[in-house]
Amino acid sequence: MNASHDYDLECTGVSKNFGRLRAVDEVSFKIPSGSFFSILGPSGCGKTTLMRMIAGFEDPTAGDVKIKGTSVLNTPPNKRNVKMVFQHLALFPMMNVYENIAYGLRCNGAGKAEIEQKVKRVLERIALPDVGEREIHQLSGGQKQRIAIARCMVLDPDVLLLDEPLGALDLKLREAMKIELKLLQHQFNTTFVYITHDQSEALVMSDNVAVMNHGKFEQIGSPQQLYHNPASAFVAGFVGDANRWKGRVLEAAGGGIRVETAAGLGLVGTAGSGQSPQTGDTVEVFVRPEFIRTGKGGAAPAANHNHLEGVVDSLLFNGANSRVLVRTGSGELIEADVTLTGGADDVQPGETVILTWSPDQALCFAARADR
Amino acid sequence: MMKNGNNWAFLIGYRVYVLAFFIFLAAPLVSAGTFAFNDSLFPALPWQGFTLNWFFNDTEPQLGMFHDRRLLRGLYYSFIIACAVAALSVAAGTCNAFLFVRREFPAKNFFYIVMIVPLVIPGVILGISILVLASTVANGLEDRYGIELEFLRPGILLVVLGQFSFVTTITSLVIIARLKKFDAAMEEAALNLGASRARVLTTITLPFLRPAMIAGGIVAFLVSFENFNTTLFLVGSEAPLTITMFDRMAKVGSTPVLNAVSFFLMVGSGLLALLSILVQRDKSGG
Amino acid sequence: MSQSDIKRLSLILLFMPFALWILLLIVLPHIGMGVLALREKVAPRVYEFGFGNFIEFLQEPIYWNTLLRTGSMSLLVTALALLAGFPIAYYIAKVAGWRTRGALFLLCLVPLWVSDLIRAFGWILLLRETGVVSSMLQTIGLLNAPVELLYNDVTVVIGLVYTVILFMIVPLVSTLDGMDDAMIEAGYNLGGNGWTVLRRIIIPYAMPGIVSGCIIVFMLTAGSYLTPILLGGKNSSWFTETIYEQFITRYNWESGAAFGFLLLAFTSFVVWLGLKLSRQTLAGTIARS
User: Fold this and answer.
1) What is the pTM of this model?
2) Which of A129, A262, A352, C13 has a Cα-to-Cα distance from A74 of 20 to 30 A?
3) Which residues of C touch B114 (CB under 8 A)?
4) Is the Cβ pair B112, C256 closer than 8 Å?
5) Spelled out in words, what is the top-level CATH class assigned to the domain A241-366?
6) Distances (CA, A) of B281 to A42, B101, B210, B223, B275
7) How far apart are the CA of B54 and the nearest CA of chain C, in angstroms?
8) CA distance C241 to chain B (A)
9) How far, in Å, are A194, B124, C67, C265 from residue B120 at the CA level?
10) What is the pLDDT of residues C200-215, one digit of tens each?
11) Is there a contact between C88 and B21 if contact means CB atoms under 8 Å apart?
12) C52-288: which CATH number, 1.10.3720.10, 3.90.950.10, 3.30.420.10, 3.40.50.720?
C-alpha cells in the first residue's frame, strides 16, 4: 500500500490559464480520507475552475491531480470516481427522483435488482424513503439538495465535490442545511470538498479550510487556526469580521508594535504570523469586534492594553450578536460587540465609553500593494 | 388607469372593435366550412338542409371527398410531402441549433442572418430559383452525357426540397429557442455521473429538446401541407392537395366537396396546432 | 487525434447540413436564376449574354406598372395591417384578463394554420354574385339584384390584409407581452395623457415587433399569388402572376427569371429601406419572434 492512499485527493502545483488570465496559480494541497474540506474565496478567485479541473471538465495548464494516489489527468470526466453537486443542482427535470438517482448506476451497467436496492438504501440514508416516484418539480428546495447528494453518493465516490450548493436557498433553510450536510458527511464518511464564498458555511462545516484569492491558496488550516491565526492580511480580513486600520509603524520592539493610523489614532499590536514589520513600514491592523470591551469608565484597564475614549454613534441590535459603533476622538468608527440586556446598564447612543483590547488581539500585517 | 365616463365609452368601443375583428377573422372560415353540410350542388345560399353527402356519398353528382379519387390522391401526396419535409427540417434544425447555440466560429452573426433569410424570400422566388437550377443541371447532363436524371425534373423531390428550403428556418428558430434555455450543467452532471458523450446526448439533451422538436415538426408539417406558392412551380404529375383544389376552383367551378375538404383540413390542422401547443407546455418547459 | 482536432472535426460535421442547405437550396439556385436572367434569346436555341430581359421589362410599361402596383399595394396592405392589428395585439397583451388572453391568442393562431387557399375560398363564397353577402342583402331588402363584390382592388386589399394580419399580430403580442405594465403606469404617473404614452412609450418599445411584423407582412404580400388571383380575377395584375405567366404559360424562362430577380431586388430594397428608416436590424427583429 502506497502511503499517499491516506489522501483521497491530492493536487500538486495545479495551474490554469485562460488566455493571458491565470485563473488558478500553483495550487497544492492534500485532503485526508473522510474529511470535510472547504475552499473559501470571493467570487472570481478561481475556486470553481479548480473544482472543474478536479472533476475533469477543464484540463490543468500545469500540475497534477491525484485521486487515491493515482493521477487522473488522462482520465475523462465520465470515468473519474469524483462526483459533483452542481451550483444549481442540475437535477434532470425529465426524470423522476428514482430515475435521477439510478442514472449513474445505469451508466455503470448495474443490474435492475442492484439499482433498485441501492436507490432504496440511499433514499433511506437521506431520510427521504418515499419520494422515489415524485417529479423533481414537486420537491422542496432542501429535498432537491438531498436528492442531488444522493444521486452522487449512490455511486460510492472517492471524493464528493460541492459547488456552492446552498447559494439558492433562503437563509433559514441554509442554516439547517449546513448542519445536515455535516451530518451527511459523517454518515457516508466520504471526503467532501466544498466550495463557497460564505465564510460561515466554511467555518461551521469543515475540518479544514483553504482560503483562496487571486488563484492562490493564502492559507490552509482548521477553522480556528484561520480565525485566530490568519496567515495573511487577506485571511484576517476575509474570515470573520474585523476592524481594520491602515497605519505606520512608530516602534517595533519585541512583541509589541506601536502603530499610528492616518487619522492619528495610536495603537499597540502584535505581528501577525510570519510578519516582522520594521519602524516606518505601512501595516494593516485587524481587531475583531468581540475582543473589544466596551466600558463606561470606572475600573482601570490592564496596563499594556489599548484603551480609547469614544462616543456611541449607534447601536446595532441583533440579539446575542449586538454591536455598537463608537466614534473616536480622531473621527474613526470602531465596531465592538456588546451584550444588551435591555436593562439600565446598556450603553446608549451619545454616551461616552471606553474601549479596551489586548495588543495580542490586534494583528499587524504588511499593507498589501493591491488594496 | 383613469376611470371616467369618457374612458368607459372608449373601452366599450374598443371591445366592439375587437369583437368585430374576430368576426372578420372567422367569417370566411365559417363560410368555407359550413357549406360542406349544405344539401345542394352549389356552395351558396339558400340552405337546402343538412347532409354528410359531401364527405361520404359515393355517387355523382354529390360525390363525397372520401370517394373522390383525385382529391384522395392529392391528400396522399400532401401527406407524404409534409412528412418528408417535417422529418428533414427537424433534423437540419436540430443540427443548426447545436451549431448556433453551442459552437463559436468566425462570422457566426453573419451566418445566423443567412439562416433567417429564406423566411423572407417570397415563396414564388424560391420555387422558380430551385426549378431553374434543377432544370439547368438536368439539361446540362442530358445534353453533354446523355444522362437523364428524372428526379431533377418537377416532382415530389423538388417540392420537398423547395418547402424544406424555408421551413428549416422555422424549425431551427423553434429548436434554438429551446436549446438556449438548456442548462449546460445538466450535461456535465450526466458526464460526472459516468455517462458517455453519446449517452448524455440521447438521455439528457435530446429528451430536453423533444417538445421543441415535436412542435417544430408539427409546424413544418402544417406549413408544408398548406403551402402553395413554392409548390406551384415545382409540382410534377403528383399534385398535392392544395394544387388539386386550386385547379378545381379555378377551372372546374366549385362544388361543396371543396368545402368538405376545407372543413376536414381546418379541423385537422386545428387539432395539430393545439397538439403542438400542448407539447410545448410540458412540465420540463422551464 | 488530439482534443482540439476532434472539436474542429465535429464543428465541420455540424456545419455541413447548414452549409448544404444554404448553398444548394438558396445560394446556387439564386445564382442560377441570375445567370438565366442575363441570357438573351436571339433565335430559337441560340442565346447571348446580355441585359435584354431587363431592357424588355423597362420597355414594356405593363410589366413595370405591375411591379409598381404590386409594391404600392403591398405597402398599403402593410400599413393597414399594422393599423388594424396593433389595437388587437395591444388588447390581447395588455387589456384582456389572464384567461381571455390565452384564448384570444389561440383564436389568432388557429386561422394561421389554415391554408391561404381555404381562406380565399371562404371569401369567394361570401362575396361573389351568388354569395352569402349578396343574398343576405337581397333578403333584407337592401338590394333588388345580385351584386358582384369580387374582382375589384378593394376586395383584393381586404383579402390580403386578412391573409397576412396574423403575422403582424403575433410578433406584436410577443413584444408587447414583454413590456412591464409599470412603464405605462409610470408614463401616466409622470403626467402623460393617453396619446403621449402611446407615442413616447408604447410604440418605441414595440418597435422591434412592429418592424418584424411589417417585414414579414410586406414580403408575404408582395410574394402572394393565391389571394390576388382568386379575389382579383385573372386581370388583377399582380407581379407573381406575371412571373407565373412567363414561366408556365409562355415558357419564357429567361424573362421569368429576370422578373423573379426584379421582384426579389425590389422587395429586398424596400425591406432594407424600412430597416434603415426605423434604425433596426434584421437579426434584432425577425430572429426574436
Assistant:
1) 0.82
2) C13
3) 22, 26
4) no
5) mainly beta
6) 39, 22, 12, 21, 10
7) 16
8) 10
9) 52, 11, 18, 12
10) 778 888 888 888 888 8
11) yes
12) 1.10.3720.10
